[in-house]
């Protein structure tokens, strides 16, 4: 092999070595610097979205505790009238009238809280039957006070049983689950979190629970819209169960 050929081969080898070294250095920089930096961005973004989701239900805790206080007169009227057989012994107010008063207060809270799906008083007696309820199932999803004929027993539901074991002033926040009506998952699917607190009478005995259903479709939609460019958001619970699709 001539000198010229040897020089050419040497230059080619040097170029290949330089390219390989540059590639290795670039890969090293990417793996050591850029990948962790990208993971940090993803982690920070995920924590921010999780914080937003938590904030969407944080206010329900104070509302669950505040409703029995704000509606104390109506709640006591319902309790007193129920035990008296349907007519308030301190006047002529009927149980239906006290239900209407309480339902109206629930409806006012729903109007002020767009993410709340329904608010209920569920009694400890009669199989855990709803005593008063306001929801968004009126015409055009308007807020309404539910008529007595539509009230349902809920004593077998986990959130009712957990809340009945609490002390006054405590709140149970449920896991995320799909809404059920009359034993079947409602359609379209509505992911809910429930905030429940016991209602205790002056005698110290539990009369029932107040429960707020929080509709998470709005917060989930906001999480999807906040995805990083080119990314997708998947929402799971602490057990890894899938909760929300990345697309609407």
Helical segment tally?
5
Give a short account of the largest sheet. Answer: 7 strands, antiparallel
Estimate what percentage of residues fall within beta strands: 15-25%
Structural class: alpha+beta
Low-confidence stretches: 3-17, 239-248
The total strand number stands at 11
Distance between the termini: 69 Å
Based on CA inertia axes, which overall geometry fits?
elongated
- Rg, Å, rounded: 29 Å
Helix content: 40-55%
The succession of helices and strands, N to C, reads HHHEEEHEEEEEEHEE
Averaged pLDDT: 78
Describe the protein's architecture and organization:
Strands 1, 2, 3, 4, 5, 8 and 9 form a seven-stranded antiparallel sheet that branches. Strands 6-7 form a two-stranded antiparallel ribbon. With 248 residues, the protein is of the alpha+beta class. The longest helix is centred in the first third of the chain and has 68 residues, at 3-70. The chain starts with a helix and ends with a strand. A hairpin with an 8-residue loop joins strand 2 and strand 3 (144-145). Helix 2 (72-83) runs antiparallel to helix 3. The chain contains five helices and eleven strands, in the order H-H-H-E-E-E-H-E-E-E-E-E-E-H-E-E.
């Amino acid at each position: 092999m001539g000198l010229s050929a040897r020089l050419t081969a040497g230059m080619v080898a040097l170029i290949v070595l330089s390219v390989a070294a540059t590639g290795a250095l670039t890969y090293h920089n990417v793996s050591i610097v850029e990948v962790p930096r990208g993971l940090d961005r993803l982690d920070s973004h995920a924590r921010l979205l999780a914080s937003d989701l938590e904030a969407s239900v944080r206010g329900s805790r104070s509302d669950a505790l505040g409703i029995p206080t704000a509606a104390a007169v109506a709640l006591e009227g319902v309790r007193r009238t129920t035990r008296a057989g349907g007519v308030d012994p301190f006047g002529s107010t009927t149980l239906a009238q006290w239900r209407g008063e309480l339902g109206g207060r629930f409806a006012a809270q729903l109007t002020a809280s767009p993410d709340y799906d329904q608010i209920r008083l569920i009694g400890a007696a009669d199989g855990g039957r709803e005593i008063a309820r306001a929801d968004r199932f009126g015409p055009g999803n308007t807020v309404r006070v539910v008529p007595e004929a539509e009230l349902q027993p809920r004593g077998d539901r986990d959130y009712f049983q957990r809340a009945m074991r609490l002390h006054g002033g405590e709140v149970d926040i449920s896991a995320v689950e799909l809404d059920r009506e009359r034993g079947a998952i409602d359609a379209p699917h509505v992911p809910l979190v429930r905030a429940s607190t016991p209602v205790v009478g002056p005698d110290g005995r539990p009369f029932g629970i107040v429960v707020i259903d929080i509709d998470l479709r709005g917060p989930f939609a906001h999480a999807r819209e906040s995805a990083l460019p080119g990314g997708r958001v998947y929402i799971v619970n602490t057990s890894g169960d899938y909760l929300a699709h990345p697309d609407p």
